[in-house]
Amino acid sequence: MKRFINFIKDTIYDLNHIIFTLVIIAAVAFILQNRIRYMFSKDYSKIGGNEVKAVENVEREALYSSENIPDIDISVILPEGSSPEDVGRILYESKVIDDVEQFLNVINTYDLGNKIEYQTYQIKKGSTLEEVINQITNNALAEVKEN
User: Fold this and answer.
1) Does residue 77 contact residue 39 with C-beta atoms inside 8 Å?
2) How far apart are CA 55 and CA 53, in angstroms?
3) CA–CA separation, 27 vs 145, rounded Å?
4) What b/e sequence results for 92-127 when a residue is b if at least 16 CB atoms lie within 10 Å of its CB, and e otherwise?
5) Which residues pair with 55 in a beta bridge?
């Protein structure tokens, strides 16, 4: 009988060691999983061309809702020799305009393709399509509409 009781006692001790070890392993796995998820959850923005934003602009955009964003200048580079389609794509990717087709329709309607000045622009966020076209064509749209 004493042998049976010692067997049960040894079995319980062994089970306690196994359970304790499994609890430690589960806790370490949980902590590692959360740390790894945190490390890979960071959003690293792309760097290059017109996709680069100043840190202060990103912080301002994060602080304000879309209704009350203060004036933010978006830097846009229009390379020499770009077609109006390229210019429209660059402006769209820089979030200056909402629709490339609408931009091209205005440019083609008023024959402003050859009036686009290729340089670096600081365009205010929220500018209308007409304001953007006037800025990149040195007010050619306004002059054409007046006549």
Assistant:
1) no
2) 6
3) 71
4) eebebbeebeebbebbeebebeebbeeeebebebeb
5) none
Q: Distance between CA atoms of 86 and 15, rounded to whole angstroms?
A: 70
Q: Is 75 helix (H, G, I), strand (E, B) or coil?
A: strand
pTM listed for this prediction: 0.52
Q: Which residues of 37-59 are buried (b: 16+ CB within 10 A; e: fewer)?
A: eeeeeeeeeeeeebeebeeeeee
Q: What is the pLDDT of residues 42-87, one digit of tens each?
A: 544 444 444 444 555 555 555 555 555 556 788 999 999 899 999 9
pLDDT digits (tens, 9 = 90+) for 13-50: 888 889 999 999 999 999 888 887 777 765 444 444 44
